[in-house]
Specification:
Radius of gyration: 29 Å
CATH topology of the largest domain: Lipocalin
Shape: globular
Oligomer: single chain
Number of helices: 1
Structural class: mainly beta
Number of strands: 25
Strand order of the largest sheet: 1-2-3-4-5-6-7-8
Mean pLDDT: 77
Largest sheet: 8 strands, antiparallel, barrel
Strand content: 35-45%
Number of domains: 4
Distance between the termini: 48 Å
Low-confidence stretches: 135-164
Helix content: under 10%
C-alpha cells in the first residue's frame, strides 16, 4: 500500500511539472508571433471627453507616433520603437509635453497592448486596441435659427408700430450676466508623493490638482531649493541640480507638499531597493512570485507552488542592465537547485527574469510595488 502511494505521488508531481512546462512553451510560441509594424492602437478609455482617444502608430521602419489625449487637448510624441519578446520599448526623440525619454508597453497579443508608463493623459495599465474608438459624449453645439422678423421667440411677429417706433409693450428680455459664486478649494491631490528625474529635464507636469477642479481659488507653487528644482505657476518642474527639495502647493487655505529628487544620470547603479512582483497566471491571485532587494546587497525571491511557497535567498550585484543574484540558501517548497538567478533591468520600475525556474518562466516581467 505504501509503495502504491509513493508511485501515485511521483506520477502526480511529474504531470504537474509537465503541464507547467507545456504552458510555458505555448506562451513562448505566442510571443514570437508579435507583429506591430504598420498598425495603429487606440486607448480603450476616454478620460477627458475628447472626440479622439489617445492612439499610437507603429511604422514598419521602426518609427512611431503617439498622440496622447489629456486635459487640455492632444500632444504628439515620436521616436523609435523596438520589441523584446513581449515588451515594446519606445525611445522618445521628441515630445510636445512632458519630459519622457522611454515609454513601455506590454504586448498582450497582436491586437492588444497594455501601457506600463504613465503619460500626461494615458495612465499605466490603460489598454490599447487596434479597434478604432471615438468619444461618444462629444456632440455638436446646437444653434437656434431666428424666426422671420428677427425674433427667435415663439408667437412674436417682430412687427413695429406704424409710426416707426418699436412697440413699447414689448420688454427687453436680454438675460442679466450670470454671477459665478465663489467655490473654495477643499483639498489637493497628486499622482505621486515622491518624484524624481535626472538633471536638466524640463517642463514635467507633476499633475498636482485642486479639489474640486472648478474651484475659484488660485493655486500657487514653490520649491524649497531652486538650485535643485524649479516649479512654474502651472505646476511644471524643471530639474536643475543633484539633490532633494520639497514642492509646496497652496490653494485657498489648503497646503500640500511632495518630495522631489534630482539624480545623477552618470552615477553608478550598483544598488536597487524595493519589492518587485509578477502577474504570473500560474499563481493564485495574491500569491504571485515576488523578489525583494535591500540596500545592503541582499535579496529574497519567493515562488508560489501548488502546495505552498518556496524562498531563494542570497546576495546580488548589478552589472550594466543585469542583476546577478547568487543563491546561498533555499527554503520551503523551492524545487530548483539553481546557484544564480538573473534579472534584466527594463526601467526603474520593471525587471525581466532571465532564468527559467519551475514556476517562474524566462522573460517574465516583475513590476515595482
Amino acid at each position: 500500500m505504501k509503495k502504491r502511494f509513493v508511485i501515485l505521488f511521483v506520477l502526480l508531481s511529474f504531470f504537474l511539472v509537465l503541464s507547467a512546462c507545456t504552458k510555458k512553451e505555448e506562451e513562448k510560441e505566442e510571443k514570437a508571433a508579435y507583429d506591430l509594424g504598420g498598425k495603429t492602437y487606440y486607448n480603450t478609455v476616454d478620460k477627458y471627453g475628447h472626440e479622439d482617444h489617445s492612439k499610437i502608430w507603429f511604422g514598419k521602419d521602426g518609427s512611431f507616433v503617439l498622440n496622447d489625449s489629456y486635459t487640455d487637448g492632444t500632444y504628439e510624441v515620436s521616436g523609435k520603437w523596438a520589441l523584446d519578446e513581449n515588451v515594446c520599448s519606445l525611445d522618445v526623440e521628441s515630445t510636445g509635453k512632458g519630459s519622457f525619454t522611454k515609454i513601455l508597453f506590454e504586448v498582450m497579443n497582436n491586437d492588444t497592448l497594455k501601457l506600463k508608463t504613465s503619460l500626461e493623459g494615458s495612465k499605466a495599465d490603460d489598454m490599447f486596441s487596434t479597434t478604432e474608438i471615438k468619444g461618444s459624449d462629444v456632440k455638436p453645439k446646437e444653434e437656434t435659427t431666428p424666426a422671420p422678423g428677427g425674433s427667435d421667440k415663439e408667437g412674436s411677429s417682430g412687427d413695429k408700430d406704424p409710426s416707426g417706433k418699436e412697440d413699447s409693450s414689448k420688454s427687453d428680455t436680454t438675460p442679466a450676466p450670470e454671477v459665478k459664486a465663489d467655490i473654495p478649494c477643499t483639498g489637493i491631490t497628486s499622482l505621486y508623493h515622491n518624484y524624481w528625474s535626472y538633471a536638466n529635464e524640463k517642463n514635467w507636469d507633476l499633475e498636482i490638482r485642486p479639489i474640486p477642479a472648478d474651484t475659484t481659488d488660485k493655486m500657487t507653487f514653490s520649491s524649497s531649493d531652486e538650485s535643485v528644482v524649479k516649479i512654474d505657476d502651472q505646476g511644471r518642474a524643471t530639474a536643475v541640480g543633484i539633490g532633494n527639495a520639497v514642492i509646496t502647493a497652496k490653494c485657498g487655505k489648503i497646503k500640500y507638499t511632495v518630495n522631489y529628487e534630482v539624480r545623477d544620470k552618470d552615477a553608478p547603479k550598483n544598488v536597487i531597493v524595493g519589492t518587485f512582483q509578477s502577474k504570473n497566471p500560474n499563481s493564485a491571485p495574491g500569491y504571485e512570485p515576488f523578489v525583494v532587494f535591500d540596500k545592503s546587497g541582499k535579496f529574497v525571491f519567493t515562488e508560489n507552488f501548488y502546495a505552498g511557497l518556496g524562498d531563494f535567498a542570497g546576495t546580488y550585484k548589478i552589472e550594466d542592465d543585469r542583476i546577478y543574484c547568487t543563491v546561498n540558501s533555499v527554503a520551503g517548497l523551492a524545487l530548483d537547485s539553481v546557484k544564480e538567478i538573473v534579472f534584466k533591468i527594463v526601467d526603474e520600475n520593471t525587471l525581466k527574469l532571465k532564468t527559467e525556474l519551475t514556476m517562474s518562466y524566462n522573460s517574465e516581467l516583475f513590476y515595482r510595488k
